[in-house]
Specification:
four-stranded mixed sheet; 7 helices; alpha/beta; Purple Acid Phosphatase, chain A, domain 2
């Protein structure tokens, strides 16, 4: 029995959807979907159902794309998130709003899917918070979230992020008092994990500094994230960090199929190793 992870299926792209039928079933294994399954509700449902048909248990965390509101009369912000939570519960997918699940392997741990947004704090110290978006725009960078990701009923995305952090930390502390954790969030938990040299100022939309010590505070054995479309394994403070994206069609090779990009989380590799991307030691 293994726990796998995959993020950023982005089923809004035809090439990604066409890869789904060949995705091999692993009926004895579990799967983490690390966000950005699709850009519309229909594509999110398509991906979630494909996963539940192939794996014994599926966990999901939201990415920014799932939270986009494409229509003025559609659900926005928290309402959009809650609509996907309701779908997950209908088809048996574990979400950040559900009780954490214990991994029943030789070394029990808690799989903790969390939903924490970003607050524009992944920026250089000289850049003031109020100037952050303008700083990114000066380099030609502006996330589509600024148009499509509504924070309703919160006044800002930063406020929504703060609320999510404050809701999540007590749950993680309670779980970590019993077992080590597998922490799962769409966005990287640390700024130093954001290595996107072609668009470095996109870091604004990649996380929050409030989570930078979560891996040690909450006894993580593995931290899983997506979002960057840059597959890597990092070892920091003895904790393995896995970026598990598939990405847009230009980010993966179709001949490998979806199976070629699944990342084994548990039992996992020996310390300091992993396959599927660069390995960094710190």
């Amino acid at each position: 029995m293994k726990l796998f992870a995959l993020g950023d299926l982005h089923l809004g792209f035809r090439a990604n959807r066409e890869a789904l039928p060949a995705w091999r079933a692993r009926p004895d294994d579990w799967l983490i979907l690390a966000g950005d399954v699709g850009e519309t509700f229909a594509h999110v449902e398509l991906g979630l159902r494909a996963a539940t048909e192939r794996f014994a248990r599926v966990f999901w965390v939201p990415g920014n794309h799932e939270l986009w509101s494409h229509r003025a009369d559609g659900p926005r912000g928290v309402a959009k998130y809650e609509a996907i939570i309701a779908l997950c519960r209908r088809i048996g997918v574990v979400t950040p709003e559900d009780p954490y699940v214990i991994w029943p392997g030789e070394s029990p741990c808690v799989i903790a899917p969390v939903f924490v947004l970003y607050d524009y704090s992944f920026r250089p110290a000289p850049v003031a918070a109020g100037d952050a978006v303008a700083w990114a725009e000066a380099d030609g960078i502006l996330s589509a979230d600024e148009r499509f990701l509504a924070p309703d009923p919160y006044p800002t995305r930063e406020a929504w992020c703060q609320a999510r952090v404050e809701e999540t930390e007590p749950r993680l502390a309670e779980a970590a008092a019993q077992y080590p954790l597998v922490l799962v969030n769409h966005f990287p938990l640390r700024q130093d994990l954001v290595r996107i040299p072609r668009i470095p100022r996109f870091s604004l939309w990649c996380g929050t500094r409030r989570t930078e010590t979560w891996h040690t505070r909450f006894r993580a054995v593995v931290v899983v994230a997506g979002h960057l479309h840059v597959r890597t394994t990092d070892w920091i403070d003895g904790v393995r960090f896995e970026e598990v994206s598939l990405g847009y069609p230009r980010h993966w090779r179709r001949e490998r199929g979806i199976d070629g990009y699944l990342r084994e989380i548990l039992p996992g590799p020996a310390a300091g190793t992993q396959t599927g991307g660069p390995v960094f030691h710190r």
